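Q: Can someone sanity-check these two? First one:
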Amino acid sequence: MKREQLKKLELSDEQIDKIMAMHGEDVEAQKSKITTAEAEAKTAREQLEEANKQIESFKGMDIEGVKKTADEWKQKAEQAQKDADAQVAKIRFDIALEKELKEYKVKDPSDVIPHLKADMLKLGEDGKFIGLKEQVEPLKTSKDYLFASDEKTPVIVTGGQNHSIIGDKIGDAIRTGAGLTPPK
């Protein structure tokens, strides 16, 4: 639409300006829609080209081999998780065992553990070991050196000032010979 066409219809300049403004808005809206559609079409073409490249790369692949490899890695991951869980359980078991052995006044739990039958020990839900007492009590009598004694160690009292008379005299003589004054 052109201004000359509207002037031929004998419209005022003000009316022509309003019509041209409305027409301009419509044209801009259509341009925006076209630009958006072109961008979407370009993106779709790029995605299609990328998908075709992927498909071509898959044609040369051994799908069964990929599936087999994926299954092998899945099994390895599951085995690694099982191994890690077993290690964590063993560490928790060992820590709980050492803690409970200290309650039996064991000097060094690592010295007592080799004398225990671990397969006969069960960690209860309360955190206490089932079967530990039955194994520790015989050890207390047969290998009592592994356990701290309940008896107090005797205190040895020495006499008052226990100076050596000869030692003092020799030290004094040496100091005097060296030109030093002996201590008093």
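And here is the second, same format, sequence then tokens:
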Amino acid sequence: MKPEGSGTDPQEGPCQGLWVRGPDEGWVRVVCLRACRLAGSRARRLLGGSSIRGMSVRWDRSSLSFPSTRREDEPQIKLTPVRLYFPDQPYCRSYQKMDDSETGFNLKVVLVSFKQCLNEKEEVLLDPYIASWKGLVRFLNSLGAIFSFISKDVVSKLQIMERLRGGPQRECYCTLQAMVAHELGSQLVDLERRSQHPESGCRTVLRLHRALHWLQLFLESLRTSPEDARTSVLCTDSYNASLAAHHPWIVRRAVTVAFCALPTRKVFLEAMNVGPPEQAVQMLGEALPFIRRVYDVSQKLYAEHSLLNLP
């Protein structure tokens, strides 16, 4: 699992890449970040000082000038090299350590729970939908801080939906279909700006809906990819096909760099806690259709009411 190539401590020489240090290997450059476009302050909040399965993420003191491969309307920024330090564990093994709070977690149970989100009329029930998303958040959190930019946003959206479900109009928020009809009929959906109704249920679920599409695509790519597939590529492709279109340029660049530190495909499959990787692949094939069906029903509803591009 050790990356090819090695180098000296970045403190003693140029540090122009992503460096990993294990207890015996010295410093190893994993990926060169010179060509990556990294938004300094936003990425610092995303990665700097965070803990990823016992791994410390720190920023080197030096900076590199941002390459001149940008659009004219994009800001000039600096690229700050990243290095990853493993205090007491071999490379990649620290990814496999789960927090005590994740004991007993099983992704199959979470994915199959999406089956309960649709009633006999194929309406999306919001209580099971919220509960299923909470399980997905546990899975994302079990993988460390790399996915925090998504899980934190999802948690805030789930809190909004729980307030609506517990509010005076709770009966109007039993199903996604009832919610859309209620909010459109009551003019609670701001179709042009966010300022008037920034926390409408329609807008909130749309953000969850987009994130669900990304996760569905990523899990499907993990299922169908070969054993040596690079998870950073799989995750980036899934992100570009779903969430990227709805994020500003500065976030897209920071996220792309963060994905460079993802664990291997095997580690992802083992984190699902359903058995060996082969069993996890089989489970995904059986369970992902439940997510896909919920997504398709929601997508059709939003498209029928022209709500897919809510600001």
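A (reply): Looked at the second one. The CA atoms of residues 63 and 80 lie 5 Å apart. Residues 10-94 form one domain.
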